[in-house]
Fold this sequence. Notes:
The protein has helices at 2-5, 10-20, 56-59, 84-97, 105-115, 117-120, 233-257, 261-290, 295-320, 333-356, 370-396, 401-428, 433-458, 461-464, 477-480, 539-543, and strands spanning 29-35, 40-48, 61-69, 77-83, 137-140, 163-167, 174-181, 183-186, 193-196, 202-211, 496-500, 507-511. It contains 16 helices and twelve strands.
Amino acid sequence: MGVFSDIFGWKTCYSVCFLLCFICVHSERHRASWTSKDFFLFVSKFGVQKTDLKNEDATQGFFYGNITTNSNFSNALTLVVVDSEYFSHFYGNGSIANAKVKPNKQQRTNICKAMFKSIDEVAYDKDCNLNGRKDYIRRVPCPKGGLCEDEDTPSNVIPKYQFTFKIMDKQIPRFWYMSIVACYRNTTNKNCSWVSSEENITIDYDIWLVNGDPVYKKWNPVEHQFSFEEHDIFETFMAFLGVYILIVPFYFYVYSKQRHSLTKFLLVITCTEAFGIFCNFIHVAVFASNGVGVKWIAVLGNAIDTLAQCLFMLSLLLLAKGWMITQHRIRGKKVVFSLWGVYTLLNCILFLWNLFEVDVISNKDEWQTWPGYLICGFRIVIMIWFIVELRNTFQSSRCAEDRLQFLQQFGAYFLVWFIYLPVLVILNTQFSALWKKKIMLCITNGADLLSYLILLHLLWPSRSILYLLKGEEPIPYDLLITGILDEDQDEVNIFKRKKKLPQNGHVKAEPNHNTMMNGFQKSTKSRYTDGKRLALLSEEEEEL
C-alpha cells in the first residue's frame, strides 16, 4: 500500500475540512439580515407537494415568518411568493438592477414596473386590485409585535409569526419562489404605480418553508421540512447506511483472512464510502428537525463520497492491469495514475462548481454543466482503456481457469458500471426537476453499493485463494492441506523430505509417510501439473 499512502497528506485533509466549515448550503429555514441598497434578494426555491383535497391543511405548502426592522420606515419593501410561471419574468427584470453598473432612481422605478407587470394582473391587493385571485405579495417590513399590513385574516397566520402564505397545488407538485425587492406601491395619489424605494433599510428575517401545516408536523416528520424534490431522501440515506453497516464487517472479515494489499485497499474505500453516507444522513436527520441541518457535515459528506468514487475508479484500473491477480507490480504506472488524476481533478472541479456556480433558481443540476459533461465523456474514454487493458491481461497471462473466470466476471460487470453514469445523465435531461435529485441519488448510490457487494463476493476467502497472488503473509496452513495452492507461487514441494544417501552423499527424496498413498497407480495422464505434482518416488529409487 506504499503507492497509496502518500497520495493524500494530513495537512491537505486538515485544510480542506477547515474550509468546508465556512461553506454555506441551502436550507429551508432562512434567518439573516439584508439591506435594501442591494435592491433584490432571492430567498429560496421550494417544491410544494400536490395537495390532497381530503386533507388540505396537512398537505398544503406553508411559507411563514417574521420580517422586521429597527428603522422608522415601514412598507417600503415587497415580499413576493410566485410559481415558476410568473417568476421567470419577475426575476429576469430584477437581475438587471443587481448588475455591476447600478441603475439610477428612474431606471430602478422602471425596473419595478416591469417586474410586477405580470403579477399585477392576478395578485390581490386591498387598495389596488380587489379582483385579484392570487395571494402573491406582502408589504414589508412588518411592525414589531404585530401582523404584516396585508394579513387581513389573522386566523390564517401561524401563531407567533407575522405573515403566512398557504400554497395549494391541486394537479401536480410545483416549485415556488420567494424574493424580497426594494419596490413598493405608491398609494398616496391612488394611482397604485410601482416605485423604487430610495431609503436604505436593513431588515431581519426569519422565514420557514414547509410542506404541511406545522400543527401536523408529527404526522410526517421526515418530509415536513424538505422541498418536494428531496422527499424520501431521509429514508434513502438511512437505507444505504443500514446496508453499509452490514457489509463493512464482512470486508473486515475478508481482510482478516487474507491480509493482502488488494483487500486492504478495498476495505479503505468501502469504509470511506460508508462514512460519506453517514455524514449525509446526520445532516438530513438534523434538517428534518430544524430545517437547517449541519451545513459543514453535508459538504464534508459529499466531499468524502467524491473521494471514495475516485479511489474506487483507481482500484478498477489497477485490477484491469492485473495487479495482485497476475502480477505483484503495476504495469504502466504513469498511464494509470495520469488517467486517474485527470478523472479525480474533473470530479473536484464538479464538486466546487456545484457549491458555488450551479444556479439554484434554474432547474439544471450539476451534471448539466461543462464539468459534468467532461466527466461523462472522459469516463467513456477510461472505459475503452479498461476494456483494452483487461483484454491484454487476459491474453498475455498464463492463468489458471479460476483466474480467467474471475477476470471474465470482473470485466462483465464493471463494464456496465463504467457506462451507466453517462447513459443516466443523458436520460436525466428528460426527467422533471422535481424528481431528478431522488432518481440520481438512488441509482448512483445503488450502483456503487452493488459494486462493493460483487467485489465482496469475488474476494471471499474460499474463492479468492484460487486467483489472488500471495500477499504479505503466508497462505494459512488449513488452506495448504486442502491442496489448494497459488499456481504462480514458487513453493517447495511440501509433500517430501530429503535425506543424504550413504553411497555417494547425494540428496534424494523420501516419501512422506504421513501422506496416505495407498492404492496409488502411476499414469501417463496424471492430473497433477508440474508445479503441483506430488514427490512420489519411483520403484527404482525405492530399491536403492
